[in-house]
Amino acid sequence: MRVALTGATGFVGSHTVRPLIETGHRVRALVRPGRGAGWLEGLGAEVCRGTLGDEVALRALVADADAVVHTAYDSAVWDTQDQLPHLRSNVLGSLMLLETARQAGVRQFICTVSTYLLRRDVEGPGDVRDVPLDESSPWAASWMPYVAHNVVLESACQAYHAQFGMATTRFRCAWVYGVHPEAEKSVWRSLLEEVRAGKVCDSAFGCDVVAVQDVAAALVASVGSPAAFGQVFNLCDTFVYQADLVRLAGEAIGVPAKIAGGALPRPGPILSEKVKALGVDVHRGPEGIRDYFSKLDRALRGRVP
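and the corresponding structure tokens:
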């Protein structure tokens, strides 16, 4: 199939390009002007220059496409005092992409949103709720504009499926971890360095996580799959406290973790069984996180991950 991909030079998108091509899809990737894309062309992807706010570029991106995979998110414009740049780049851009794809006759629109729609990160024991959450759970009230933007995109996908019969697919992703193409930008890098330096962890922060490889696998598996049409899927492996991450990082690099404080309450899980209908299982558990820290350590030290 012909797949139009946004966010190809970003974290999730860059991990999705290769499996899309290896699965036999032809990929056309939206890349900002001036951004290096030689590696994409080396993989066999076609590069379309432009941004989400560029209607001409969007029409070129989706022309003759069978499916759109939308992973782009411009975090550089984030500013809690001025939401207009974010609305233009991410919210309006996403809606323009959805409508442009519909007008071009694209059959399927696949996008990533966040499990923040269901619950936010835990800042301390008082935030813990022992209630399992699945795809049918109601959206959570939030003070974060980012969540409101996710609601807009989810709602638009629901509407386009209901009104136009467009096969929209939404993946709610937990905090995505994995080695970034630029290793220094990888999530929890500073935590790994603190463990190596022998610092003590006394944080009660916790979050839901999922491996980037599994997000990419779900995106690829959904392309052209009737089991994904009109559906929403949670992508959450497990919930971890920072103390859990410190312990796993220490085990990965052979340094005893230093953790202050006692056991913390565990929230109910964000259930992610539904995605197994696509042949994808996102449950790697602690071993997956430990393996990630090992790969990140090697990448940061200049060895092949």
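(Above: one complete record from the training split.) The CA atoms of residues 237 and 282 lie 5 Å apart.
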